[in-house]
């Protein structure tokens, strides 16, 4: 009888754990995120961002490609709210890297979740769970011609 109780307890724990282990993949609009007040007031205006194959001025110097892998607390937030917040964090990290390396832009920004590249000029990939949301990006830090 004790064995049955233990087995039932373990089954309940494993069932509950998988219920909370949500990992929903979302594709959200980059433009919608960039137009929000949080983005406009927090992103560095002097470090340009170009997604996917967006056209940009001529690259004078490439300073390397850099990944970001950001997570945020998603508790009590909608998936889109959590994903936009963590996208902001990832973009700020790329802009800070550009400043550190002496660049003025980040080009070829792609989603890079679990090292799988998704390139788009209009969408980014975000994975949201019950408690955490994550965005991973890869971007090339460059100096662009004026």
Short description:
With 146 residues, this protein is α+β, with helices and mostly antiparallel strands.
What does this protein look like?
- Keywords: Signal.
- The chain is α+β, with helices and mostly antiparallel strands and 146 residues long.
- The protein has one domain: Translation Initiation Factor IF3.
- Helices cover 36% and strands 38% of the residues.
- It contains four helices and seven strands; from the N terminus they run αβααββαββββ.
- Strands 1, 2, 3, 4, 5, 6 and 7 form a seven-stranded mixed β-sheet that branches.
- The radius of gyration is 19 Å and the shape is elongated.
CATH architectural grouping: 2-Layer Sandwich
Main sheet record: 7 strands, mixed
Structural class: alpha+beta
Q: Please name the fourth-level CATH homologous superfamily.
A: Hypothetical protein apc22750. Chain B
What share of the residues lie within helices? 25-40%
Total number of distinct structural domains? 1
Distance between the termini: 77 Å
Mean pLDDT: 91
Rounded to an integer, what's the Rg over CA atoms? 19 Å
Characteristic key phrases:
146 residues; alpha+beta; Translation Initiation Factor IF3; 7-stranded mixed sheet; 4 helices; elongated; signal; Excinuclease ATPase subunit
What is the fold's blueprint, element by element?
Elements: H1 2-20, E1 24-29, H2 30-34, H3 37-42, E2 48-51, E3 59-73, H4 79-101, E4 105-113, E5 116-118, E6 123-128, E7 132-144
Parallel strand pairs: 2-4
Antiparallel strand pairs: 1-6, 3-7, 4-5, 4-7, 6-7
